[in-house]
Structures are given as C-alpha cells and as structure tokens.
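Hey, can you fold this one?
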Amino acid sequence: MAESARKKILVVDDESDVADLVAYHLKAKGFDVETVNDPTHSIGTARSFMPDLVILDVMMPEINGIQICRMLRADPKLKQVPVIFLTAKVEENDRVQGLESGADDYVCKPFSTKELVLRVQNILRRSGGKEAEEPVKLIAGSIELDVDRHEVKINGSTVDLTATEFKLLHLLMERRGRVQTREHLLLNVWNYETEIETRTVDTHVRRLREKLGTEAEWIETIRGVGYRMAERRVQESSA
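Sure. Predicted structure:
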C-alpha cells in the first residue's frame, strides 16, 4: 500500500514476542516499524524515529505507558502523534485513565492483530490529512476551525488538539445545533460500531473542553443522549 509505506509506527512493549508480532503484521501492510522493549528508551527513540503513530503497552517496568504517553504529549515535536494503548488492563477505570492521559485508542490483550491494524489505519486516515476539497473554516464565537490547515484557534491563538480531538470538534461544529449521540460520535470519530466504549466520548469531550477554556460552553451536554455544539452562546441566548 503506497499510503501505508510512508507511515512510521513505533511499538513500545517490554514483551518482545508481543512487539515482534505487532511489528510483523504492520510490516506486512507496508508500514515502517520500529520496536522498543526497554521503555526507558521509548522517548529517545520516538524523537529520532519521529513516528506517525505509537502503539504503547501500559504495564512496563521502570516507567509505565501512562507516563510515557504524558511525556509524548508534553513534547513539542511529538504531542500530536496518535497513541494506541495495547494492554491487559481491561477495567473501565483503566481505559478512562489511559484516554485521559492523551491516548487516542485503547486495545485490550489478548487482541486481534487484524483489528489492531485496522484501528491503526483508521487513526492514520483521520490524522493524515486533507481531502481534495476547497478550504473550509468553521466558526463558533472565538473558536475558528480551519479544515484545510487542520488548525484550531481561539481569539487568534492556536490550540493544540490531538487528531481525535480535532475530528470530534470538527464534527460538532459541522453539525452545529444538532444533537450528536455518543453512539453516532463513536461511529463517525472512532469508527466503532458498538456501544461498548461510550465512556470514550465523555473522556474526550472533557479533554476538549479543557483545551477550549472559556469557549468550552459552546459544547452542550444533552443528558442521557450525547453532545451538541450550541448555535448561540449561553450569554447571548439569555440576553
């Protein structure tokens, strides 16, 4: 696959057999793959390899995947690289903690290599870029989303969003005024077709609101249903 051949994947897992298995299937799809079994080397390798996506185990010695993910998000050159957690920790609280640390997806062990590869491809497709359309800007109050440049600004200042957060905001702004159910968001932002991970939506909306700061109120919670980008600010509606 020509598109996949240009993409680089970093796999960090202290179990070499797992890392090698994942690498084998990704390479078979044309990806350039680097594996790291010593988690203390993960950030250094990421900085030199500059991956398009990181697959990260959670439970590792010395430094765990949650800590590594937070370090990636704090690095100016790596903060927007998508992260998939691959872990045996399957409880809901574990998944929520992983997503809150900045991960874009969460795959539990034992896992299907076919599903993992599909999730990698889906995330890279979302973050990879532009479609052949005219530049589009969506505006809500001080929020300005530039589809063509894949950029969000508030009062002229750039807001750093992950690929998933950008797509979530894009979808809400594009369908402004219309309620988006959690299931609909999972299908259109994460490409899921089940209701298993509806908590994923809540976690990402909370993170997105934090980054929007004073403009967070544009995203309304429709209790028991989902979310909506308001047509007018709360102050404007009550004026």
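Confidence is low (pLDDT under 50) at residues 1-5, 129-134. Let me know if you want another pass with a different chain boundary.
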